[in-house]
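Review session, final week

We close the course with one last complete record, chosen because it touches almost every idea we covered. It is BCCT family transporter, a protein from Ruminococcus turbiniformis with 515 residues. Go through it on your own first, then we will talk.
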Amino acid sequence: MEDNNRQVNKLAFWPAIICLIIFLIAGVLFKDEMGALLTFIMYGMADNMGWFFELSVIVVIILTFVLAFSKFGNIRIGGPDAKPDYKTWNWITMSLCGGIGTGLLFWAMAEPIYHFMTPPVAAGVEAGSREAAIFAVSQTMWQWSVPQYCLYTICAAAFAIITYNMKKKLAFGPILTTGIGKKGRKIETFVHAVVIFCLCGAVANSMGVGLMQIGAGVESIFGIPQSALIWLIVAVVIGVIFISSSVSGIGNGLKKLSSFTTIVFIAILIYVLILGPTTFVANLGTESVAELMDHPFEKTAILNTMAEGDTWPADWIVQYWASFVVYAPILGMFLSRMAKGRTLRQFILVNVLAPSIFCIVWIAVFGGLTVNLQTTGAFDIWEGVNTTGMQSTIFYILNTFPLGKLLTIVFVVSIFTSFATMADPVAAALATVSTKGLSVDDEAPAKLKIVIGVIMCAMAYVLVASGGVDSIKGMWNIVGLPIAFLMFVVIISGFRNAAKCVKKDDNIVIEDEKE
């Protein structure tokens, strides 16, 4: 007979899985229609709800630093005697890799050339100009740094307080009860079902990007053209990697995989910085950081007000914020494990700033490289993007370096491991919310992690096969809106529970579950 503490929450798990399977079948049978629908949704949602996502991100950034620098920042997660379970290096690498997935290796590398050659109307700069270059690199830096890690971290803080300082289970039930009252318990199962559906779709999006990029890498290395078969093979390999890592547990699989991936990132970064246009990169990077610091909130809220024909917000910033919002609650659940033994202020500042600084440096190097290649005429990146796609152009750039083929192989390996380090914690967290009665230190059943991982891989393949990048962007907007409301409930819960804990000398509050 199955342990009561390890029973599958059938009312949450199976409805979500059935809906995902229906989505998969529709994508297989009606591939073109699915692609067109998702593209239509992408622009419709951006035009009508873009303001909501952008305003939400601004509010979250402010609240994150309010939580850190207020009296709540003194709260020690787990109480005065709590000790961290993970070394600072492992914590930072798991936070970095868990947040970026394949994004930093795909969008953040070639994205600056888009903003350089087709800036938004709101930027007020001429395409291809010096001002456009600074805007392009600084905008990409901001989109991949502080905003996304504030979203993840504030949710992580809420889960850390309720699990370590209030000794409640690692689930949305206690969060909902604090955030909206006793009614939260009644809708916990529904919320878990929505989270499972949305996050499986979200991870499939990130994995879809990885399939496209690895397919381009295989073509660059071996000359094998990209095709549905190649994407399918890559999906299977990625699935085996991250499912195996997830099943082995956070202390074994993810910790080692994140550390390895970060070391590979650093090696690639140093190699490109030394052998690339170092002075140009340093100059443009410095000016871009200054631009970013001058206009952070302006860069957070770019819409097409009085410029209806401008699709830049829909193509970029709105779907970015929607994607980060989707991940926020579930990655927060995972990252809460890193907070134990640290003050809330320490946790927030390190978890936001350390990964953000790395991402800013990465984009300074690769963004500066792409602008330099374009403006010097060494390589027409813009032409390459428009003819062969962004995923292929990245490998053309890498091949301009000495030992370019070897660099490409290392880069492809990093895509595999980078995605695995993001999918692993999400699959584990989804398996956790699919299981009754787990504590923060418990591992979810391996069989659930496997089922969820297989679903993610299948969805990624369908998304790429049905319409590529536009389908992926459209899917973000579908799953982002409902999760945004859940995210704010998590944040409200975090502040309310922090207010209770800060009044206690040991920061521990034990409440009757029946209250």
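Two points worth writing down before the exam:
The mean pLDDT is 83.
The chain is about 75% helix and 0% strand.
Good luck, everyone.
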